[in-house]
Q: What sequence folds into this?
């Protein structure tokens, strides 16, 4: 299975943009890049996903490198509520039903 | 729109006791999953059900059994609880290719916090 690598933790100031990186150098052509986040004491929640093109939704933007070996989740204006663990996961044909979560990036947002 | 509902939210068991964790989804998803999350760790897949009538093992299936009761419900059973099974258990559901969806993201329940003493 293709693996992802994320920093263990990051810190941001409130109302500033946050760029959360993810490396996935062994990604296959059919793997979608998914991002989830887990707020304290809650289940993970879907944030965004993409295949090749950059994606935007109301929560965040996903920037995917041209070679697809890395991606960046962008929170345009961090709020205290965005403090969470963010998981970058690859989902493809081979592992479609085996969504493996790594340890993610713990984002701390300072007031 | 309830999404994924898990019961109970909290449970304390004695070693050797059995219990069943219940999960139900109302989104007409085909696929359902059980994960466990130990303190400070990521989630690990226990079992999944790609569609009604099928179940398969994930990363850490030992000590657990599952039942896909119908399309909506997927239960996880601990036959003889052990302290190592103290964890937070999450159920999730998802569309599966062929259901006509474009978003195959997971929807998670709020979890069951299980302590085995």
A:
């Amino acid at each position: 299975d293709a693996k992802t690598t994320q920093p263990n933790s990051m810190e941001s100031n409130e109302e500033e943009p946050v760029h959360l990186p993810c490396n996935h150098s062994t990604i296959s052509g059919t793997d979608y890049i998914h991002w989830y986040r887990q707020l304290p004491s809650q289940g993970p929640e879907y944030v965004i996903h993409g295949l090749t093109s950059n994606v935007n939704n109301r929560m965040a933007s996903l920037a995917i490198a041209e070679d697809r070996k890395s991606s960046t989740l962008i929170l345009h204006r961090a709020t205290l509520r965005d403090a969470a663990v963010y998981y970058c996961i690859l989902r493809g044909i081979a592992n479609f039903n085996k969504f493996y979560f790594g340890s993610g990036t713990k984002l701390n947002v300072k007031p | 729109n309830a999404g994924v509902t898990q019961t109970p939210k909290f449970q304390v068991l004695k070693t050797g006791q059995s219990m069943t964790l219940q999960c139900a989804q109302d989104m007409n998803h085909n696929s359902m999953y059980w994960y466990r999350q130990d303190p400070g760790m990521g989630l690990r897949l226990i079992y999944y059900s790609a569609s009604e009538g099928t179940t398969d093992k994930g990363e850490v299936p030992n000590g657990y059994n599952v039942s896909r009761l119908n399309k909506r419900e997927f239960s996880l059973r601990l036959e003889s609880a052990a302290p190592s099974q103290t964890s937070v258990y999450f159920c999730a559901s998802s569309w599966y290719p062929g259901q006509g969806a474009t978003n195959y993201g997971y929807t998670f329940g709020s979890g069951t916090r299980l302590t085995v003493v």
